[in-house]
Amino acid sequence: MSGKNFELGEENVFYEFYDLISTSKKNGRIEDVNIEKLLREIRAIELSLEKTLFLKSEFWNTPFYSILDKSLRVFLNTFQIRGFKKDVLFISFEVIVKYFLFLSKETTNVLSEQELNNNFSALLPSSFFNFQLDLDQEFDFPMPKDYFSIDKLEKELGDRLGIRKSVSAEKVIFNFNSLLNLTIYCDNFIAKNIEWNIEFNCFAVISEVHYMTMDLVYEPNKSKIKYPESFSLSFYQITSAIKTIKDLRLEVLEIKRGSIWVRIRLWMKDLLTKEEAKELLQKGKDAVISEYLDKRILEVKKLEGEVKKITTEEAKIKGELSQLLSKEQFQQKISNDLELEQLMIEEKKLNILEKQLNLVSKANELIASGILSSKELDIYINSVLFLKKSETGIQGGGSDIEEIT
Fold first, then answer.
1. What confidence score (pLDDT) does residue 353 get?
2. Cβ contact 284:368 at 8 Å
3. C-alpha triplet 349, 354, 360: angle, nearest 5°
C-alpha cells in the first residue's frame, strides 16, 4: 500500500511523536537514551497498522486505534514536559511500546470493547488512564480530565512493570517477573499467553487457546414472571451439554438482573475442541428449529449404524479365526494369539466409540431441550445473534456458527 493512500492527517499521534523527537534533538532534551531505537519501534507499530487497516476512515474508526492513540498520548504529554532521559518512565515506555507492537500485530480485529480494554489493562496499571488530559467516555477506564501527575504516573508504571531506580547504583533495575503469563485476546478468537523474553528483549507467546463468548438472554414481558424457573433449567441443560466436551472449560463471566442476562466464556484447548463445540451448538440449533428432539441427529445415527456394522463384521472374523485355530499347526498359534489380542483391542475401541456416540447424542438432545425449556430465550455467540426463541416461534438469527466464530 502506498503512503498516498494512507494519510492520517495532522492529528496522527505517530507524526506528533516524530516531531517531538526531532524538536527534542535540536533543543538538547534527549539525555543518555537510544532515541533512534525507540523511533524505529514506534514506526514499526505504525507500519503494522498500515498492513491491516487500508483506508483512512477504517483506521480512525477502529476501536483498537482509538485506545492506542489515547495510550500513546499519555506518554507524548509527559515527554513534552520532561524531555527524554533514561529514567523509570522512559524504560517503562520502551517496554510498553514493545507491548503495543505485539498488540498491533495480533489484535487489531478484536471488536469487543471489553476484550480491547482487557488487552491494554493487562500490562498497564489500573490507574493509567487517570493521567489522560483530554479523554472522552468511550471506554470503561476511570478518567478524571483535570488530573495530571508525571511523578505518580512514573511510580504507578514502575510498580506495575517491576522497574525501579536504584539510589545507590544510580541505575534503573528491571524485574521481568512482573511480565509473566499475560492473557491477550487476539484475532480469530484466540487468546494467547505471553511473557517477557529476556534473551530477545521482547514479548513472546508461550501458549494459546481458543475462546468463544455466549450470552443467554431472557427478556419477558411485564406481565410474565420476572425470574422464571424455566430459565434456570434452560441454563443448566445448555451448560451441562457443553461441559461434556473434553478439553473445554466453561466460565461464567457476568450475570445481570432485570431481564436475565448471563455471559459465559468457553475456553477450548485446541482447534479440534473448538470444532466439537461449534458442532454441538449448531446441531442443537438445527434440532430446535426442526423440532427434532425425540430422534437422533442424522449424522449420529449414521455413525451408530457403522459401529453396529463393524461390530458384526468383527464378531464374524473372530468366529472364523476360532475355527482356524483348531486346524492350524502349533507353531502358528503364537501368531493367531496376537491376532486375537489385536481383535480384543479393537473391540475395546469399538465399545469406547459407542459410548462416545451415545454421549454426543445425549449432549445434542440436552442442549436442544435446554433451549426449549425457556419460553423466551436469545442466544448470542461472540455478540452476534445465533438463535432467538419466543412463545410464537423460533428464528435462526442471521449467521451460522462458522461465520461468527
1. 57
2. yes
3. 125
